């Protein structure tokens, strides 16, 4: 009895030790270890970063020549394909991927696939939009990991990068090399300059915050604040305090929104020059308004007339540019921005109608 329970304990202890070994062997690669692979290109100067922690994917890359980029993707060897895709939208459909696997006999295959659609017959081997340098691809299995290496001939690879891993023990085969559906995939953003990679969902949250902050501050609150300043003068001095309070609030929120825009641009490596320029212009005009408040001449002063003219028209210009930039930002940031556009358009229309009514009232009073 005793002996058997000891042997059971021994059995489980051994299992435990083996599983620890297994875990250790799965992480034989890290960014601290050197690549000892026989690759067609130099691997000593590669940037290295973990890109998909769930599957322990590690990416190494460097710009070799002005138009040649070296990539080595390392992943646990699970007898399945590994893939690295480049996408313009972050979606699989329309992307091109470098896919590699090692067959049971130890031979490796690397192919480019074009992902024309969700159905398997739309995923075609030996097609796609990546210019892979001739004879630069290889895939090697070493210490329970596979190393997929390739060179791209491009001045700048796309930063929306997808990774996927195939079903265990299912690898594509001749003649069509049809790609069975992946076991798992992730969509990321790779900043080649800073060497950072982040999951795309994080950015979609940041994108949303950026949109909501700016829409709310410059695009909505500023208008309400301006209306308080223009139409509620009969409640003196309440109109002044509410106008100042709303505009200060809007300015601070808007400042946060614009800063989030800079962060977003940097993380996404986005090409949003016009949107950014308009944002900066809005911020500068907004700052001028804030400064003007402090340089406000007294009510009886002769120049007060000019100051009023400047303050009112400056404010109108900020609001008009802001409205345009909110719509433009939605266009840039959302594949399908219909609901955002509609929601914002409804708010703007209500404010517009309200100000027409109040404007008419104002004229009647005078
Ligand atoms: C750059 O790529 C070329 C062409 O594949 C190769 O001959 C050369 O060794 C590479 N240089 C480095 C530093 O990797
Ligand atoms: C990308 O490659 C696919 C398949 O080779 C082709 O049908 C498509 O037109 C290409 N797209 C671009 C933008 O070159
Ligand atoms: C990259 O592409 C250009 C133009 O297609 C070609 O002239 C050049 O030789 C290519 N470079 C490599 C390393 O294949
Ligand atoms: C690529 O490999 C093939 C077969 O080994 C060879 O015939 C061809 O010349 C190579 N191309 C280059 C550019 O080295």
User: In what range is the share of β-strand residues?
Assistant: 15-25%
Side by side, the strands of the main sheet go: 7-6-5-4-10-11-12
Mean pLDDT: 87
Low-confidence stretches: 17-26
Bound molecules: 2-acetamido-2-deoxy-beta-D-glucopyranose
User: Mind telling me the CATH class of the largest domain?
Assistant: Mainly Beta
The H/E string reads: HEEEEEEEEEEEEHHHHH
Structural domain count: 2
Principal-axis shape equals: elongated
Structural class: alpha+beta
Instruction: Name the quaternary structure.
Output: single chain
Counted by DSSP, the helix tally is 6
Please estimate the helix content.
Answer: 40-55%
Radius of gyration, CA atoms, in whole angstroms: 30 Å
Largest sheet: 7 strands, antiparallel
**CATH architectural category of the largest domain:** Sandwich
Q: Can you identify the CATH superfamily of the largest domain?
A: Cellobiose dehydrogenase, cytochrome domain
CATH topology of the largest domain: Immunoglobulin-like
Overall strand count = 12
């Amino acid at each position: 009895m005793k002996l058997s329970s000891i042997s059971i304990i021994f059995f489980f202890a051994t299992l435990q030790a083996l599983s620890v070994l297994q875990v250790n062997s799965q992480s034989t690669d890290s960014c601290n270890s050197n690549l000892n692979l026989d690759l067609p290109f130099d691997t000593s100067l590669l940037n290295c970063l973990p890109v998909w922690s769930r599957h322990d994917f590690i990416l190494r890359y460097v710009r070799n020549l002005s138009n040649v980029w070296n990539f080595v993707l390392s992943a646990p060897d699970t007898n399945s394909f590994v893939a690295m895709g480049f996408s313009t939208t972050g979606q699989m459909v329309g992307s091109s991927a470098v896919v590699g696997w090692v067959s049971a006999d130890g031979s490796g295959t690397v192919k480019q696939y074009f992902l024309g659609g969700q159905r398997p017959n739309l995923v075609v081997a030996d097609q796609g939009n990546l210019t892979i340098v001739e004879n630069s691809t290889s895939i090697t299995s070493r210490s329970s990991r596979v190393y997929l290496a390739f060179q791209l001939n491009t001045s700048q690879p796309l930063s929306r990068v997808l990774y996927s891993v195939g079903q265990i023990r299912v690898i594509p085969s001749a003649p069509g090399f049809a790609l069975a559906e992946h076991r798992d995939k992730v969509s990321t953003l790779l900043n080649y300059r800073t060497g950072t990679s982040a999951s795309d969902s994080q950015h979609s949250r940041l994108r949303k915050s950026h949109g909501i902050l700016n829409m709310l501050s410059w695009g909505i609150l500023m208008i309400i604040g301006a209306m308080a300043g223009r139409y509620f003068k009969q409640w003196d001095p309440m109109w002044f305090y509410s106008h100042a309070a709303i505009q200060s609030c809007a300015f601070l929120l808007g400042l946060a929104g614009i800063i989030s825009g800079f962060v977003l641009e940097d993380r996404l490596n986005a090409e949003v020059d016009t949107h950014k320029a308009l944002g900066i212009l809005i911020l500068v005009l907004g700052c001028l308004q804030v400064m003007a408040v402090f340089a406000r001449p007294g009510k009886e002063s002769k120049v007060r007339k000019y100051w009023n003219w400047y303050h009112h028209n400056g404010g109108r210009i900020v609001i008009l540019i802001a409205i345009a930039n909110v719509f433009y930002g939605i266009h840039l940031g959302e594949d399908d921005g219909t609901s955002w556009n509609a929601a914002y358009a409804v708010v703007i229309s209500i404010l517009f109608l309200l100000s027409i009514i109040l404007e008419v009232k104002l004229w009647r009073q005078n």
